[in-house]
What we know:
Number of domains: 2
Oligomer: single chain
Low-confidence stretches: none
Distance between the termini: 64 Å
Strand order of the largest sheet: 1-2
Amino acid sequence: xxxxxxxxxxxxxxxxxxxxxxxxxxxxxxxxxxxxxxxxxxxxxxxxxxxxxxxxxxxxxxxxxxxxxxxxxxxxxxxxxxxxxxxxxxxxxxxxxxxxxxxxxxxxxxxxxxxxxxxxxxxxxxxxxxxxxxxxxxxxxxxxxxxxxxxxxxxxxxxxxxxxxxxxxxxxxxxxxxxx
Length: 180
């Protein structure tokens, strides 16, 4: 009798932890804890450095590094700290989706490919101009009360409002923007 109750209790706990959605506030607290542990260890949280390293490796593979003037001796992505954080971030998201049984491959509408390409290009240009992504250019400087973090806050807010305006006024049935 106790094994059945114990099994049901485990299922309830599993469902609470891994299947049901968490509060966004709990997610924010978890991110703050990770950033604080990294800071206490003398490190910072970053994403763009690992992605850039992957891009440099790809450019080296196809022979563009010498042409672009990039360095040809690159760190190993499997021992580079920020690259490892990127890998574990992707693997952690995959495991979370698999465990919660919410992983599925969906084919988006064709317009979403265009939106994804435009968004990816703008994010890449923005990260290059800022010298880092929203993590390195926003969260980390904001924790240290740097003016760069507050400036990034205003720019990100402007970009969000512009995106929100565009998405709210996008008519899916006609696949075009409608302006008030």
